[in-house]
Structures are given as C-alpha cells and as structure tokens.
Fold this sequence. Notes:
This protein is an alpha/beta fold. The chain has one domain: Lambda Exonuclease, Chain A (Alpha-Beta Complex). The protein has eleven helices and ten strands.
Amino acid sequence: MRHISVSKIEKYLQCPLAFKYRYVDKIPEPSAGVLLAGRVVHEIVEHALKVYAKTEKYPDWQTMDDMFEPTWEKQVKEEEEKETFLTWQYNADDPAEKLKAEARPLVRVARQDALSKIKPWMIGNDPVVEYRIDLELDCDIGPFKLLGFIDLLDASGILMDWKTTRGKVSNRAKKTWLQFAAYSLHVWPLIGDEIVKCQKIFLIRGDNPRVEFCDFEITPKHREWFVNIAAQTWKSIYYGIFPGHNENWSCKPLFCSFFGPCQEGIFKPDPEEVIDVKG
Length: 279
C-alpha cells in the first residue's frame, strides 16, 4: 500500500479485519445502491458549484434536476464496467426504485436550501471543490502519504462536507470529525486561522426531504490527534495487524459485506501469515 486515505483510516478503526479483506486481500464486494444515490447527488452539486465559480450564478433547480437521470445512468455504467463489479446490493426496506425516487428531490433541496448560502473559495481560477490533497506525514517507521478530496471550502473559510442519508441523522454521524481534522491540515494555512470552522451538510431523503447543517470547530489538538492516529494506523497496516472488532457498531450485515463469511469462519487467516511484532 503506497498511501492511505481518511476513509481507509476510518475503516481500519471500525474493524481492522474488514479493512484487510477490502484493501489488502481485495475481496470483491457487491456495489451498494445507497452509495450510488449519494454519488449521483454529489456529482450534480459539484457541477453546480463549478458553474458558480465560472459565472457567479448557480444553475436553477430544474436544470440541475434534468441532470439526475443521465448522471444516474453514467454512474451505473461506470460501476458495472469495473473488473471488480459483482452485483448491486439494496436493503430490503430500501429497494432500487424507492432509493432513486427519494434521492432525486435532494437535488432541489440542495439547490434551494444549501447552495444559496454558499460561495466556493477560489485558488486562482479554480474553486476548492472536490479538491485533491496530497500530504506527507511522519511515522517512526518512515514517512507516508495521506491522499484525499475536500468536498468544499466556502469563501468564508468554512470547510464543508456533503452527506446523504435517510430519516433521522444519527448522533454518530453528527459527532464524527476525523475527516475534518485531516483536511484541516491543508486548509488552516490557506485560510490563516488555526481554528478551522467546519460544517456537515446532510441531505436527508424520505417523506420530508430536507437539509440539516451540523457545525464543528477543529483545533490544533484535533489535528495532532489525527496525525497520531494516522501514524498508528499506517504502522499497524505495515506490520500486518488486523484483529476483528466484533462488537463495533459496523459489525452488522447492513454495514459490512463480509459479515456472513466472517462470522462463519470462512475468512480465517493463515497462521503462517501472522507476523510476530513483539518488541
């Protein structure tokens, strides 16, 4: 593994064994329909932000809504053309037709209730929208790279992240700030303030599609904690330390594609591959 990302760190913290199955063993997984819906809405919002950066005007909601069907089809095609594609996975109470029907209104919600309050930060002629960061962090086994993409930096200096969900936003989703701590490593020198204001923008589908904002402040202590966690995660991966976390919230069929085989013992490690790292 040549680099690490925030999503990989989050996956390792949830369950190192699931991390191993996905990123080391590269065991194929079904493609989640709920993630497809989020990517479609995200791409349309990203396009609107880039239009604003060029014209200082957002497309109207109908123009953005017209993008939904072709964007959905494009995302489906791209996913199904991957060599690792197996099949689509939808929850029994959230089938494909329902998911698609509930995701589409979020485009209008995003345009009318969120984008109207946002102006992207500009670096030259480019907006900080889906902006790639490439950082080198230190570890006692050597430096490593952290890669990621910032969803959005507002002109006011607020680091923003789009999330799509259904129903009530969980307290866990509201409180997690690992991604903000990571990206603030790049952002705080840019805005000139060590305390970085952040905001999660939840686009909530269901009978009452709506937007919900959740504010954070990331301090130097948060960044210090993240750098330490990232280094520990990198070191654990390097030495092949992948214990299972059976009692984690994500250890459920709904959240982990490997739950069934893992519980049945199908994915047991070869004892000869376990590395002794004592001392």
